[in-house]
Amino acid sequence: MDMAKAHADSIETVPLVSTAASSQVLSVQVRKRFADGFELNSEFTIPSGITIVFGASGAGKTTLLDCIAGLTVPDAAQIAIGSQILVDDAQGINLAVRFRRVGYVFQDLALFPHLSVDKNIQYGLAAMDENAKRLRTDAILESFRIPQLRGRKPAEISGGERQRVALARALVTEPCILLLDEPLAALDAPTKSKIIDDLRAWNQAHRIPILYVTHSRDEVFALGERVLVLENGRIIAQGTPHEVMTAPRQETVAQLAGFENIFDATVLAAHPDRGTMTCQIVGSSVELETPLVRSEVGSVLRVGIRAGDILLATVAPAGLSARNVIQGRIVSLAQRDVMVVGKIDCGVEIEVHLTLAARDSLHLQPGREVWLVLKTHSCHLMAN
Amino acid sequence: MKFTYIGSRGNEELNSMDWQAFALTIRLAVLVAAILMVLGLPIAYWLAYSRWRWKFLAEAVVALPIVLPPTVLGFYVLVALGPRSPLGRWWETLTGHTLAFTFEGLVIGSIIYSLPFAVQPFASSFSAIDPRLIAASATLGASRLRTFFRVILPLSVSGVVTGVALSFAHTMGEFGVVLMVGGNIPGVTRTVSIDIYDKVQAFNFTAANLTALLLLMISFAILSVVYALNRRVWVIWRWK
Questions:
Q1: Which of A9, A29, A180, A247 has the most neighbouring CB atoms within 10 Å?
Q2: What is the number of CB-based contacts under 8 A between chain A and chain B?
Q3: CB distance A112–B151 less than 8 Å?
């Protein structure tokens, strides 16, 4: 891996405390109350590797990162990376931002607009001599595949390139911990996945704790070894992406992730061999096949279904792999921007999102009889 | 009302441009602008970034010279520099003469008088800087001083140039403070604006007009530079 090689080169020429940072544990205990009543109150420990911090905007994700970096002063805190204490109220320690060796990639990147790409990257290497700086910069530019950007100003390069420069600027200082605040939010999917590959490779080579803030579910599965779910300043779930995203979750978490349809459902039967369950929506005769979660037969769970995950058919469909076909009648169709929001009465009212073209070619109108088609894994179960 | 002149001169002197006064004015304005840049930057930095709750009081003090009549300001500066004040006495024991009616006294008075014209553009350009850039600088290990010189100052160039140019222009044209503190000593404290007043008093309108026109053109040129810079017609550094 050329990135690892580049890294090794730079260590030989520049003796810095860098390998000491590997396989460190970040432990955080932080409380901060704001004038508007919002309170961040979180406690967690994460090993090296990528940990996703998942939550809606306003959940306190950026505040959490700012407390770790020292940009926000918490009311009470105890933060340490391995044996290095950043903040400890009991001992009266509060390390200044510049001594924390935190790599922070801000949501808006905060590249210095008046400095060229290589000057931006060298900014954190002030203590080194020119030659060492150049070696380091070359290595990191090479490993992020952006050596051609060297002399350009941030305003003269593309969004994806700026993202790489911001990452490179944070990583070139060999931080003890990396904080990424929705670093890929503004990028298109192909650029995103390339940068994610670079980040994964870097993570393999360095193994420091990386906190990666996002509200995108896709990024949770693409990157995360662990997920912390943050809501209203508190951590309400943590574990592997699979555990957190498939276990019965807090309803609010699901709502964050954008479920238009949320119903109570009684567990009728579990099929552990098939990894599914049969549930009945309370107050109707609608039965759903859902993924299996830990629960008792007869217990009531919540099920969340995204309106965009539901197919709509005007004749009874056959020969489908999807396990749920529900008969109903159109109650209303409302156009919202370039999308049609349909309300379907199936004993309970279910919201469906359609394109304008689908509405027109199927001649859909209120009163029409339709069938809703829904995959098992489009039914998301949550704790009630 | 007629002023009591400390200096005196003949009519032939009043008929032409007083280049001595002009040179003195330029020297005063350059000195004051230079000192204000050095003095104004830390004051502006503090005003822009301090979270002290009584900061508004300091802001009001800095802005006072804008609204005070120059004679009021000049009067207090004169008293403060005079032989009966501690500062005046200290200066007298140091140099053997008082600050009042000297060029040094004029410099001090002008610095106070032009302070807001330097500090306010500095401070407003400092506070316009994205705080995330300053945060980024800190996470990259930079001290406050390094952040100031590597990030804040380069991104405030137009504000700093504006402040320096305004304090220069403002000092060029001041009258009340100069008259109160400096009097009218040729080659020592007689500035262009005093010279103009002299000429008008002597009904020498042609010479007054000549001098006034020169001052007008200089002020116009300086302000044009300031406004052009702030419109970024000629961008020094390109960014978004």
A1: A180
A2: 74
A3: yes
For residue A101, the chain B residues in CB contact (below 8 A) are 141
Report the number of distinct structural domains present in chain A. 2
Other CB atoms within 10 Å distance of the CB of residue A383: 15
Closest Cα to residue B237, out of A152, A141, A161? A152
Q: What global pTM score does this model have?
A: 0.70
* ipTM value for the complex: 0.77
Nearest Cβ partner of A104 from B139, B150, B154? B139
Q: What is the pLDDT of residues A231-267, one digit of tens each?
A: 889 998 888 877 776 655 555 555 556 678 888 899 9
Task: Kindly report the nearest CA distance between residue B60 and chain A, in angstroms.
Answer: 27
Element holding A53 (H helix, E strand): strand A49-54
pLDDT digits (tens, 9 = 90+) for B83-141: 788 888 888 888 877 777 888 888 999 999 999 999 999 999 999 999 999 999 999 99
- Asked if A145 and A273 sit in the same domain, the reply is no
Residues A322 and A212 in one domain: no
A283 and A224 fall within a common domain: no
Contact (CB<8Å) A113/B155: yes
Which residue segment(s) compose the domain that A264 sits in? 259-383
Q: A273 and A218: one domain?
A: no
Residue A207 in contact with residue A177, Cβ under 8 Å?
Answer: no
A339 in the same domain as A313: yes
Note whether A162 and A94 are same-domain residues. yes
Closest chain B residue to A111, measured at CA: B133
B150 to chain A: which residues are within 8 Å by CB? 112, 123
A169 at interface of B, judged by CB pairs closer than 8 A: yes
| Residue A153 to residue B239, Cβ atoms within 8 A | yes
